[in-house]
Amino acid sequence: MKRRVSDEQLVELVEAAIFVADKPLSKKHMKETVLQDIHVSDQRIGQAIETIFEHYQTRGVRLVEVGSGYRFQACPSLSPWLNMLWQEKAPKYSRATLETLALIAYRQPITRGEIEQVRGVTVSSNIMKSLLERQWIKVVGHKEVPGKPALYATTKLFLDYFSLNGLDGLPKLPELQTEKLDQMLNDPSVREPSE
Known about the structure:
Layout: H1 7-20, H2 27-32, H3 42-55, E1 61-66, E2 69-74, H4 79-82, H5 95-107, E3 110-111, H6 112-119, H7 125-133, E4 137-142, E5 150-154, H8 156-161, H9 175-185
């Protein structure tokens, strides 16, 4: 038989679960693990999360929702001081890597050939391998053209890393850039290279 808990106890349990989890925690995962023996509705879990969210609004740590669930993270304005805790520098990514990742994020699903078409240069295998190894992108299918090239899209780990709840959280592209990308990707005179 499932136990009942007060709203205060539920808030404490959800807060502690998110705090100790080694990765973002979804409502579904909470229900299947820490809350499995407790009688609780999705609405009550949502209310508990909202209570926690409000509590941390004026603190140095915030509750945020990212692609795969909820996590606590430091307030971005504190990063100049908090960065001193880590001696190693964050990895630097080449412009080519960031351009490739941006094209995948904004135009997914997209083939390597389409990325090369927009960038005007060949995409290094090392770039694609690096993005796949970081699990920021994945193959989501194959385009129905000769050679059946792989279609790439971003993952929940990409959203988590960049603190995004969804792709709608990406910065908006200027309309002129959007139109230019659409024209380049829809130009029938450009043949899709096979991979």
